[in-house]
């Protein structure tokens, strides 16, 4: 997907699967795929690229990619940074009516289970419990 998109030039006929995809969406999708196959560095890079492309215009997509970046950082063993990044996603989720935004925060929390005894993880769980508004 990334290669096909990168090789496309203005005026080329677009493949049907790309109808509404731009560089940020492609980076986001690629990041999810990289994370699923254990390529945390590539996943983090893609999440960073997606976030730069989404900006404030797409708050739901931005929130998802903040969490995806945090998940990738857990995969890299960068627990402090992962939790710091995930904290940014909580107020973002509170501004959305998306169940998926909350589910992603839950998935991030589940990924921390291997580090559950770490004080930072306990603090994260407490923070999430107090800062995340109940689903609308």
TrEMBL record:
- Domain of life of the organism in this record? Bacteria
Kindly provide the name given to this protein in its UniProt entry: Tetratricopeptide repeat protein
Task: State the species of origin.
Answer: Actinocorallia aurantiaca
């Amino acid at each position: 997907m990334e290669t096909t998109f990168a090789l496309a030039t203005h005026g080329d006929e677009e493949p049907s699967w790309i109808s509404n995809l731009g560089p940020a969406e492609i980076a986001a999708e690629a990041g999810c795929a990289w994370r699923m196959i254990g390529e945390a560095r590539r996943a983090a890079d893609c999440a960073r690229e997606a976030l730069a492309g989404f900006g404030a215009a797409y708050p739901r997509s931005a929130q998802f990619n903040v969490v995806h970046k945090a998940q990738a950082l857990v995969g890299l063993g960068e627990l402090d940074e992962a939790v710091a990044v995930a904290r940014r996603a909580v107020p973002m989720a509170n501004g959305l009516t998306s169940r998926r935004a909350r589910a992603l925060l839950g998935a991030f929390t589940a990924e921390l289970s291997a580090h559950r005894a770490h004080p930072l993880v306990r603090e994260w769980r407490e923070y999430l419990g107090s800062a995340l508004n109940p689903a609308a």
